[in-house]
């Protein structure tokens, strides 16, 4: 099979061509009770929860910055955005050990209208500086 990818290839055909060069590294997650050290910043990352973030609430470690990439809704409906907003608002996972505010970053969501969110910032093509 030729390794050259053509624009007419299906996604499956493209994957078959490129997967031989993909490197996979297995990671061991930290235990959920691993302390957050005051001289470090812990990033907690999730992706593509599709209106089901609540199902993972007992497996999300505490952290300083929460990053959600990909879709947090199925279709981008207001009710789905509000559900995710409520989940983050009642979550204890993103509390910093200091008294400073925690920056919540959501990247690449289905919904780009932030009018229904109060507990996180929707970030699409933005750069943020952490202090």
What features would you describe in this structure?
The chain is 16% helix and 13% strand. By secondary structure, the protein is an alpha/beta fold. The chain has one domain. The protein has a four-stranded parallel sheet with strand order 1-2-3-4, with no helix packed on it. Helix 2 links the parallel strand 2 and strand 3. The protein is extended. Mean pLDDT is 75; it is low at 95-101.
TL;DR?
The protein has 131 residues and is of the alpha/beta class. The protein has helices at 11-18, 78-90, and strands at residues 43-47, 65-69, 104-107, 121-123. The protein has a 4-stranded parallel beta sheet with strand order 1-2-3-4, with no helix packed on it.
């Amino acid at each position: 099979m030729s390794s050259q990818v053509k624009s007419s290839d299906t996604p499956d055909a493209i994957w078959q061509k490129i997967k031989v060069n993909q490197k996979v590294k297995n990671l061991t997650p930290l235990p959920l009770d691993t302390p957050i050290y005051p001289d470090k910043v812990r990033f907690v990352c999730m992706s593509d929860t599709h209106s089901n973030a609540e199902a993972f609430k007992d497996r999300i470690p505490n952290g300083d910055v929460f990053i959600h990439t990909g879709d947090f809704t199925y279709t981008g409906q207001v009710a789905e955005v509000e559900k995710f907003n409520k989940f983050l608002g009642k979550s204890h996972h993103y509390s910093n050990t200091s008294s400073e505010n925690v920056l919540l970053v959501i990247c690449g969501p289905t919904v780009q209208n932030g009018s229904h969110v109060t507990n996180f910032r929707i970030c699409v093509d933005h750069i943020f500086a952490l202090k």
